[in-house]
Amino acid sequence: MDVLFLSPGYPSEMPEFVRGLAEVGARVYGVGPESPGALAHTAKRHLAAYLQVPNLWDEQDTISRIIRWLGGRTMDRVETCAEYSVVLAARLREALGLPGLSVEAAICFRDKEKMKQKLDDAGLRTPRHQRATSVEEIRAAADRIGYPLIVKPISGAGSANTFRCDDLAELDRAIAGTAKVAEVSVEEFIEGEEFTFDTLTSNGKILYHNIAWYRPRPLQARSHEWISPQVIALRDVNAAQLQGGVELGRRVIEALGFQSGFTHMEWYLRANGEVVFGEIGGRPPGARQVDQMNYACDFDSFREWARIVCWGALEAKIERRYNVATIFKRAQGPGRIVAIDGLERLRRDFGPAIVWENLLPVGAQRRNWLQTLISDGFLVLRHPDLQTTLRMADRVGEELRLYAR
Q1: Are 314 and 202 in contact (CB under 8 A)?
Q2: Structural class in CATH, domain 2-100
């Protein structure tokens, strides 16, 4: 099995998907913008060959370079787990005559308006929405949809360049904030809790699903630097209040024609019990949520993803043992990290419940919290009981402090 894998170096989880492919018997041919020396050791160790290209955004140039590089050598699959290369992977499949997500289907996973229109046609509940390419169109869409509303990029990821608007003044700020974005989606703001529905799917059949709960919603967390955002992978995915979201997710995957690999959907649960679609990506979730699934079920989802895309099967026995909380931290102050407070106390009190510490060390330059959910690092903890998990997560949010200057 020869697999062409796009972007093996970025985001940071990608080397683990390369490893997974190699461990299930694939020869992995990587393509990305990083120099070979800049790739993580895990990626370099498991790649059979690597092609550096100038810019994955330049699809035609990248495809031409890959075809010349292959020199007639055949591939069995083209895969990517990075949002920005989903359509490129589909165009490569088309050029090489390989199976997998088509260009038309891939565009529906990237273009939020086409995505929602297709789901509207399938009778699924989406926020009221409209595409806009000018200030005039944004204002007209806002008049039609009404406040509160959201303005966000058509092909964005996460909550980057996303604005909630409760009135005309906030709409003006959103217009200014998206001035460099060619197309935006203007849509109804849905009040409610926000969850994910993540799947490992083979030939359209869901073999595994995960539900995570955002505390608070990403847009709120992105609006206030003092918040320590939490993502909670839930042990009890069969809880009654979640089943509307599960059914919605199954119907979304069917309507969009997704075949094999990871999907990552976000959805809303309103106070009256109504479930509303948010958006979906034809790739795994970011911000180390795949690792959350591994900690929740004690399996290797990187390898199982690879087994599905290569061989169409899932081998692991899934046992949902834990709720898993990831708490992201933002340092107080600009500059470099000078102190970390509260970590020793949390280690003492929580013991083995803390399964991963990934904080910037003292002396490191803090990150721009507006550009990455990872921020200045995170703690991952797990426990079988949800309320205990939430109490521990809240203590990390309140007691763990990073200081910078």
Answers
A1: yes
A2: alpha beta
Give the tens place of pLDDT for each residue, 98-112: 999 999 999 999 998
Q: What is the mean pLDDT of the chain?
A: 96
**In Å, what is the CA distance from 378 to each residue of 24, 194, 200, 244, 395?**
30, 20, 25, 31, 13
- Tokens standing for residue 297: 């079920």
Domain map (residue ranges) of the chain: 2-100, 128-188, 190-321, 322-405
Task: Give the contacts of 321 (CB within 8 A, at least 6 positions apart).
Answer: 235, 296, 297, 298, 384
CA-to-CA distance for 294 and 224, rounded, in angstroms?
30
Q: Dihedral sign, CA of 30, 36, 42, 48?
A: positive
| Whether pLDDT at 156 is above 70 | no
Query: Within 10 Å of residue 74's Cβ, how many Cβ atoms?
Result: 9
Eight-class DSSP state of 364? P
What is the rounded distance in angstroms from the CA atom of residue 381 to the CA atom of residue 393?
8
Angle at 383 between CA 377 and CA 385, to 5 degrees: 130
CA 1/CA 76 separation, integer angstroms: 6
Q: How far apart are CA 36 and CA 258, in angstroms?
A: 32
Mean pLDDT of 239-246: 98
Select from 3.30.450.20, 3.30.1490.20, 3.40.50.1110, 3.30.420.130 the CATH code of 128-188: 3.30.1490.20
CA–CA dist 193, 283 (Å, integer)? 23
How do strand 354-359 and strand 275-281 relate by DSSP bridges?
unpaired
How many CB atoms neighbour CB 187 within 10 A? 23
Residue 255's Cβ-count burial label (10 Å; 0-12, 13-18, 19+) is: middle
With H, G, I as helix, E, B as strand and everything else as coil, classify residue 208. Answer: strand
- For domain 190-321, give the fold: D-amino Acid Aminotransferase; Chain A, domain 1 (3.30.470)
Instruction: Please give the Cα distance from 159 to 245 (Å, whole number).
Output: 20
Question: 312-352: per-residue pLDDT in tens?
Answer: 999 999 999 999 999 999 999 999 999 999 999 999 999 99
The verdict on pTM exceeding 0.85 is: yes
